[in-house]
């Protein structure tokens, strides 16, 4: 039902031109101050989209987000330290 998505950070020279990135995927955020855009694309088309984005004249660099590689399942096997702090 849900498709796998990957995040891309696109460093740009022109913020106004960065609005055109919407046709390559879901444009999530554009930073005017630091001049980058965050977008999400389908995982199966990442290589093709990175190549196409790199060819654009207003794109400096394209980086992949490592968010999907971060472990998000946590365990609570740590000892309870509240007894040390009671009076």
What does this structure look like?
The protein is mostly beta strands. It has one domain: Peptidase S8 propeptide/proteinase inhibitor I9 (Alpha-Beta Plaits). Helices cover 10% and strands 31% of the residues. It contains 1 helix and 4 strands. Strands 2-3-1-4 form a 4-stranded antiparallel β-sheet, covered by helices on one side. The relative contact order is 0.25.
Which key features would you list for this structure?
Alpha-Beta Plaits; 4-stranded antiparallel sheet; 4 strands
Summarize the structure.
With 87 residues, the chain is mainly beta. It is 10% helix and 31% strand. It has a single domain (5-68), classed as 2-Layer Sandwich (Alpha-Beta Plaits), CATH 3.30.70.80.
User: Tell me about the biggest sheet?
Assistant: 4 strands, antiparallel
CATH architecture: 2-Layer Sandwich
Total strands = 4
Counting DSSP H or I runs of 4 or more residues, the number of helices is 1
SSE string: EEEHE
Strand order of the largest sheet: 2-3-1-4
What structural category do the secondary elements indicate? mainly beta
| CATH H-level homologous superfamily name | Peptidase S8 propeptide/proteinase inhibitor I9
User: How much β-strand is present in the residues?
Assistant: 25-35%
Subcellular location: Cytoplasm
Main location: cytoplasm
Family: Belongs to the UPF0298 family.
InterPro entries: DUF2129
Protein topology:
Layout lengths: L4 E8 L13 E6 L4 E7 L3 H9 L4 E6 L23
């Amino acid at each position: 039902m849900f498709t796998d998505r990957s995040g891309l950070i696109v460093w740009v020279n022109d913020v106004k031109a960065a609005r055109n990135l919407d046709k390559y995927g879901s444009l999530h955020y554009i930073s005017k101050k630091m001049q980058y855009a965050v977008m999400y694309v389908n995982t199966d088309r990442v290589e093709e989209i990175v190549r196409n984005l790199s060819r654009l004249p207003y794109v400096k660099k394209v980086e992949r987000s490592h968010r999907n590689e971060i472990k998000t399942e946590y365990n609570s096997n740590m000892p309870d330290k509240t007894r040390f702090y009671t009076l």
